[in-house]
Amino acid sequence: MSSKDWLEKDFYAVLGVDKAASADDIKKAYRKLARESHPDHNPGDPKAEERFKAASEAYNVLSDTGRRREYDEMRSLFGSGAFRRNARGAGQPGGMPFDVSDMFSGGGAGGDRRFGGAGFQDLFSSIFSGGSAGGQAAPRGPARGRDVETEVALDFGDAVRGVTLPLTLRAPGVCDTCHGNGAKPGTQPRTCPACHGAGVTTRNQGSFSFSEPCRTCQGVGTVVEEKCPECHGSGGVTKTRTLNVRFPAGVADGQRIRLAGRGEPGERGGPAGDLFVHVKVRPDELFGRTGDDLTLTVPVTFAEAVLGTDLRVPTLDGAVTLRVPPGTPSGRVLRARGKGVVRRDGQAGDLLVTLDVVVPARLSDEARAALEAFAEQSPPASREHLDARVRRFS
């Protein structure tokens, strides 16, 4: 991406966020746009594909702290009016605004000649690439591919135990015809004669050194004379591929798994981006989850709560017996140690069983008589703290 692209494109507007947006806000905005405009959801819609590409381009810059800072500095420098030229006799006080086209004209006819004919793109490239006076520009080489995001839904048990699943993606991949180098089979890209493979060209202007991406090879470092008929020289094509993805035990809902080098291929053999898999865990009909602990609610009768009982409750890999002490109130939590989610260190969380005392809506005559006899023999519940407040309002 050139310096001119950074000046002309408002990445914040592309994602629909404010310049002061946090990293989380930027991530949420990108995910929303990526879902809405993904080519798989909009087949045959070139506008949606362009929106998807624009959102990915904006996110690649704004999600990286260093690149975002450089982007903000460059646009702030330009927007402040720092780049103006004094046009004596132009009839405008204070000089005439600098034309952005002059900044990248390379000092052609009508261009600003204050830097000996070097375009402002050279200056920006030197400033933001770490170049210094008399220094050597670092080789650029083929550009890194974009990162790819996808979403996978897992069953509750698979997320707790861990599972390996095939993941089918339709996304850019390495061209099978040229194997990513962009050249016609039987030929090879040759080293760029202009930059000698560095990907950048450097000009010395007095005490300054200005660098810019090589215009002959567009910063790649090689030139393809006979382009691949399949990918037309780009080295990548859109295709369907299947990956076996390992989801570790204990993966949680909303977690993101990074697969390095499994994203879009770089241009003409450049390094591939990364694949990020967002995990969605389907709820279980019995179990819940709190961190590494599993939760379960078990109903018990009034008699079981009063007299005590042994409960046989399920786990994800069997069953355990828990002792309910006599006089257990509703809402008491019993703990089955080690029956939760296995942690990365090999230790496991617990199964937390909440007891729910069930009150029957209907009673038989015999049950009612027995309960009334029980009530006559039972001491009343203490409500002195409530009775005092009631007497105050009587």
Write a structural description.
It is a single chain. Helices cover 27% and strands 25% of the residues. With 394 residues, it is of the alpha+beta class. Among the domains are: 133-283, Urease metallochaperone UreE, N-terminal domain (HSP40/DNAj peptide-binding domain); 288-392, Urease metallochaperone UreE, N-terminal domain (HSP40/DNAj peptide-binding domain, Sandwich). Helix 3 packs antiparallel against helix 4 (46-62). Mean pLDDT is 78; it is low at 80-138.
Secondary structure layout plus pairing:
Elements lengths: L2 H6 L2 H5 L7 H15 L8 H17 L2 H15 L4 E2 L10 E2 L2 H4 L16 H9 L19 E7 L1 H6 L1 E12 L15 E2 L8 E6 L2 E6 L8 E2 L12 E12 L8 E4 L15 E7 L6 E3 L2 E9 H6 L1 E7 L2 E7 L8 E4 L14 E8 L6 H13 L6 H9 L2
Parallel strand pairs: 3-11, 13-17
Antiparallel strand pairs: 1-2, 4-9, 5-8, 6-7, 10-11, 12-13, 14-15, 16-17
Helix pairs in contact: 3-4
According to CATH, the homologous superfamily of the domain at 133-283 is Urease metallochaperone UreE, N-terminal domain
| Helix count from the secondary structure assignment | 11
CA-CA gap between termini? 80 Å
- Give the overall average pLDDT: 78
Identify the CATH architecture of the domain at 133-283.
Sandwich
Low-confidence stretches: 80-138
Number of extended strands: 17
Shape summary: elongated
* Strand composition percent: 25-35%
Q: Give the % helix.
A: 25-40%
Q: Kindly name the structural category.
A: alpha+beta
- Topology order in helix (H) and strand (E) letters: HHHHHEEHHEHEEEEEEEEEEHEEEEHH
Provide the CATH top-level class of the domain at 133-283. Answer: Mainly Beta
Main sheet characteristics: 4 strands, mixed
The neighbouring-strand order within the major sheet is: 12-13-17-16
> What is the fold-level CATH name, i.e. the topology of the domain at 133-283?
HSP40/DNAj peptide-binding domain
Radius of gyration: 34 Å
Binding site for Zn(2+) 2: 192, 195, 214, 217
Domain CR-type: 162-240
Family: Belongs to the DnaJ family.
Pfam families: DnaJ, DnaJ_C, DnaJ_CXXCXGXG
